[in-house]
Fold this protein.
Amino acid sequence: MSNLWAQRWDDRYKANEFAYGENPNVFLKEQLDLLTPGEILFPAEGEGRNAVYAAQLGWHASAFDISIEGQKKAWALAEKKKVTIDYRVGLLEELDFQQNEFDTIALIYAHFPAEIKSSMHQLLSTYLKIGGYMIFEAFSKSHLDYIAQNEKVGGPRDLASLFSIEEIQNDFSDYEIILLEEKEIYLSEGLYHNGLGSVIRFVGRKK
């Protein structure tokens, strides 16, 4: 992953205001409310809003991103909310997470570069315990039409970085599917997710 990619996210996160707000993602919140707290991992966690929320519920929340500025904001938010999170900066394969370490992994708008997104999903799966849950929400391939109507809804502008139901089925083929759908939703998350968009939502249990 290039330094330009990291610089892009550092530039976004160094502003005082939180890019996607301080509140957790709505879908994530709904799903965590159904689970017993344990070990959870948040890939591409940005400014920490979801990891901090999980920690408030009693989860041991781990997170990673390539942005140092995101880590700074996440730690500040955790301090504000009086919780602690384990937040690491770097590439996943270099961060010393262990196989079968986590009860849940939450991929919330974790739009990795198109050329590595499937391999990232498969690597992340090795860190999830058998019987553990994968929670996923990200923009669908249909989302380009929504961006054309309203740029404020945010999201990648190249088709390859967006998701289809078929991709999720392939990437997580060894999961019991609890939920898998493409859905139009209204987003109101900070500065960069505002308006109608199209997402893929997935909840799976690792076999």
Summary: The first helix runs from residue 3 to 13. Helices lie at 3-13, 26-32, 49-56, 68-81, 117-126, 143-149, 165-171. Strands lie at 39-42, 60-65, 86-89, 102-108, 128-139, 175-189, 193-206.
